[in-house]
Amino acid sequence: MKGLDIRHVSYRYGERRALDDVSFAVTPGRFCALLGPNGAGKSTLFALLTRLIVADEGTIGVAGFDIARSPRSALARIGVVFQQPTLDLDMTVRRNMRYFAGLHGLSGREAADAIERSLAQLGMAERADEQVRALNGGHRRRMEIARALVHRPDILLLDEPTVGLDAASRQAITDHVHRLAEGGLAVLWATHLVDEIDLSDQVVVLHRGKVLSDGSASDLAGGQGLAKAFLAMTAEGSEATA
Ligand SMILES: Nc1ncnc2c1ncn2[C@@H]1O[C@H](COP(=O)(O)OP(=O)(O)OP(=O)(O)O)[C@@H](O)[C@H]1O
């Protein structure tokens, strides 16, 4: 499978079980929201998908490569935007991008073309020569997404990418990333904000390390809307109601 295929993945921090038999898949061309409240296990799953940590059990397939058996090939097919920004504020957008392209083995004309293409995909082409420090938060995030696309990955992972941004910037970013999915990328977007999700998206609800549901946002929303459905699902047995 060209997309992402997660099967029976579990992970513990010592005694604490952070992920418990998690399975789902994201096919190319899909925007999948990984929706879960604080502590659900979203960041842990991202750490497994980027091989910062290794699963205790289960398998992770990335564009057809098993991440445990072929980590280099698998990681080469993934673009990642972490929760914490990782930009050099004193460099221009282009220099930041060039540095990152180099890490993926791109240089010269090939790197320059890849940088132009991915900045254009995020509507950032005209900002290539600006210092990152001069950009607002929304544009910085868009630049990080562009940077994650520079090596033409099949799968784009974003861990709560709109944290701290204003409503207009959040909207612009969610729109851009939905368009990237329409262009053929498999997108996994971790969030606890239901307004970032379109009704045609796939939604995987993660709560206390378990997948509670996996399907279309419209099915999850039913008659009551996504926000209510998500709250009802995750409030049950949570600390807030215990
Ligand atoms: N390094 C760690 N050591 C021990 N427990 C951890 C560690 N990191 C996370 N946990 C625990 O694992 C569980 C899942 O945490 P995780 O950060 O993956 O959730 P999350 O869905 O990303 O939450 P948030 O939205 O708050 O970032 C939580 O119970 C958390 O306390």
UniProtKB/TrEMBL annotation:
A Pfam cross-reference name: ABC_tran
Molecular function per GO: ATP binding; ATP hydrolysis activity
Record keywords: ATP-binding, Nodulation, Nucleotide-binding, Transport
Domain of life: Bacteria
UniProt domain ABC transporter: residue ranges: 4-233
UniProt cross-references to InterPro entries, sorted A to Z: AAA+_ATPase (IPR003593), ABC_transporter-like_ATP-bd (IPR003439), ABC_transporter_ATP-binding (IPR050763), ABC_transprt_ATP-bd_su_PQQ (IPR022467), P-loop_NTPase (IPR027417)
Family: Belongs to the ABC transporter superfamily.
Presence of keyword DNA damage: no
Listed name of the protein: ATP-binding cassette domain-containing protein
